[in-house]
Amino acid sequence: MKQPHHPAPAEMTLPRVLSAVSDPIRLGVVRLLADDRERGWGDLRAPVAKSTLSHHLKVLRDAGLTQTRQEGTRCYVRLRRADLDARFPGLLAAVLSVAEADQVGSEVSVVE
């Protein structure tokens, strides 16, 4: 499998990051990953088809919000909190705070 591209922090742009979190499903994934735990793609649950969820994960990765790691046939994803906080100080905390208050993306969950 081809290794996915993860943009360096300097390559992350504000419009792309904001566009990535503008979708409620993607924002729900970010909220879920905000606990700084790596999650398996197959453990994520959202009210969309698996192919659609895969697309959402790609958008988050391409924007620089997440890091994807493959181990055998499984893929894992984690939030790139340190890179985001270094590039856009305070942005992630503000977005997560409002998303939590408004329950945006609460339909995204994880199988434990």
TrEMBL record:
InterPro entries: ArsR-like_HTH, HTH_ArsR_DNA-bd_dom, HTH_MetalResp_TranReg, WH-like_DNA-bd_sf, WH_DNA-bd_sf. Residues 6-103 form the HTH arsR-type domain. PROSITE patterns: HTH_ARSR_2. The keyword Transcription regulation applies. Keywords: DNA-binding, Transcription, Transcription regulation. Pfam families: HTH_20 (PF12840). SUPFAM superfamilies: Winged helix' DNA-binding domain. It comes from the Bacteria. Gene3D superfamilies: Winged helix-like DNA-binding domain superfamily/Winged helix DNA-binding domain. This is ArsR/SmtB family transcription factor.
